Every structure is written in structure tokens, then in C-alpha cells.
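Before relying on records like the one below, remember that each one covers exactly one chain. Contacts with other chains, cofactors or solvent are not represented anywhere in the record.
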Amino acid sequence: MLARKSIIPEEFGLPGLASRMPRKPVFRDRVNKARFIAKNGACNLAHKNIREQGRFLQDVFTTLVDLKWRFTLVIFTTTFVSSWLLFAMSWWLVAFAHGDLDSRNPDLDPRDLDPDRGWSNKTYCVTNVKSFTSAFLFSIEVQVTIGFGGRMITEHCPTAITVLIMQNIIGLIINAVMLGCIFMKTAQSNRRAETLIFSRHAVIAVRNNCLCFMIRIGDLRKSMIIGATVRLQVVRKTTTPEGEVIPIHQIDVATETVVASNSLFLLAPLIICHVIDKNSPLYDLSAMELQCSDLEVIVILEGVVETTGITTQARTSYVSEEIQWGHRFVPIVTEEEGVYSVDYSKFGNTVKVTTPRCSARELDEKPSILIQTLQKSELSHQNSLRKRNSMRRNNSMRKSAGLRRNNSGLAAHKVQFFTPTDASQNLNAVT
């Protein structure tokens, strides 16, 4: 059977109209390159397909310290409760084997009866342990050394003495490991690194007639970092002449502080400067090439905490989008009433400065580029000053002219008064 033909032509139907309608372009989000080190210092690295998981159990203490707090607390609680239950079962078995759980003991002499407490303590391993619950309570008292006095061990049972010694030794070991683990987690060095801050952006500008890569670091606490050192590394994907592709090639970068001395005196925020010379991996990069490159600059600050003596490390990184070419950090340290004050609200603020857009190699080959750039900036600065001065003069002239007009408008007009005699004389003259 043939399909029924529609009265409306196909080109005017919904499918035809939809096909001829202009479609809006679809914009997809740009996939950002994965960074090796996050801004907060966390390593963006995932370990997969580790077959030898038993290696982590060989270093149990470090594994416990590296765990998250919720897992550590669960392990802490489970370990203590398990040890209490295990030795509670041991005490219950000792009492059961010795016959302490029986309501009557036929081996006892009636003369050993105590009218107040029942059977005599001479033949009991542990007094008042008559159920698993009482054995569990006695296990807790032994391990945490509470000793309420309602239950106690006697000298008539060597097995109970042996269990007491074993529980004390194992309890001390568990306490030492668990409490040491919690102490190390609370005193980890990365907690101190939270108060070590870095500037959000890095800058490249001319300093001492050389292109320099600069960042700013600071310490928010008054307790200092002893022997602080800063290391810079450039991470980029490189290919060797043999064709080997190295996805994460780490290149060490020297700084002025490393050349001058071995450590930093991090009393106030400092600007770490790296001179882009022939040995620098940034030597061939211009301003345009930097924006298109996939490099990442990693900054590592290490030192010893003054109060605890623990070595700490703070990390961050800068990708090409976070490096500002032709900028300089604003000064934030001022002297106020004999005291040096630091304004951390301007910690990451930068200002534009005159900087050639070419690479450091081109500056070394053609030093005149820097001179011409500085001369142009000087001329532009002078022109801007002239424009400002002329604008100020024009504004002052306009203000003075406006004041004159206002004064002339406010001047009082002369009014002439006529007397009746004068009016009559004028009227007669007209007639």
C-alpha cells in the first residue's frame, strides 16, 4: 500500500525547515593541560596497577601516618576493642577452666566460706569474674590500668598471672604505636607549610639589564623557618635527539639566592629571582612563545621549623598562563613609627613595566633592543607627563573662566528711582 501523500510540500514541513535553519556554533571547553604540582602543593599524580601491595604492610607505621583521619580513627578504635575482647575471652577461659564460673565448687572446704562474699578468694583466679561481661570489664581495667577494686587477680592461679603479664606487654605496645601515630599525624610538617605563601602569579621583567623570572614568597607566622632554601624546576615534555619522548623532564633552575648563599633569612616576604641566561631553559622563549608553551615551573621551599625542629616543605607551580610578562611586584614593606610593617593585601599585586617582548637570546645578540625599548618608554613617559600638565592647565583655565562668568553674572544692576516732580516734568516736556 502506498503512503498517503501530504498536502503540504516537503520543503515546507518541519524536517525541511529544521534542516534549513542556521545552527548556532557549539563551543567546547578547552581542555587544560594537567599540571604536575597543584597550587596548594599537592602532587597531581595517580599510582595505578601496583601489584606488590604487601610492601606497604612492611612499613606499617608510615602507612598508618599517611592514612586519612577517618581511617586512622577506625583502626585506632578497632585495635583497642579487639584487644579487650581477645583478653576478655582469655580471662573467661581461665575462669571456666579453673571452675570459677560454677555456682558451687565441690572441691572447696566449707570452712573456707566467707559469709559476706560467698566463696573464699583463696581458690579463685580472679575474684568476681562470673560471666563474659565481667571478664570484659576486668580486661579493660587491666589494659588501661583503671583498677576499680571490685575484681582482682589472686596468687592461686599461675595461668592468670601469665595472661596478666601478656596483656600488659601487648597493651603497652598498642598504646605506643597508636599514640605515636596520632602524634605524628597532628605534628606533620605540611601543617606548618600552610602558613608559607607564594604569589599567585610569576613575573618576567628586566632587572639589572637582564631578563629575570621572579616570584614572591612569605611566611605568615612570627616563628621563623631556619635554613630555608628555595629550589626551582622547569617541567616540560621534551624529545631527545634519539627520538625518546620524556613526558616529565625536570630541569633544575638556579636562583640568585642559591648563588649568593646556602639559605634564606625569611623574616619578611622575599622576591626570588632567576636570571634568564644561557643556562636557563627559558633562554629561547619570547612573550608569544611563552603563552603557547606547555612548561610548568615548580617552586619548592624547604626549611626547619624553629619551634618543633621538624623539616617542612611547601610547594607550588606556575604554568604559562600564570606567568605575566612585563610586570613587577609592588613593594609591600614600609617603615611606620620605627617598625617595619608588611601589607599582605598587596602580596600578589603587580604593575606593568617596560620589558622587551623578545627572548633573552635576542637581547644578548642585539643589546640595542633593550636600549631602544627604554628610550621609547622614557619618551612615552615624558609625553604622558606633558599631557597631564597640559590637561591640568586647561582645567585650571576653565575653572578660572567659569569663576569670572559667575562673578559677572552675580554683579548687581543699577536701579534709578524717579520722584513725582521729575515724572511731571517729563510728562510736560512730552506734551
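The chain has two domains: 54-186, 192-370.
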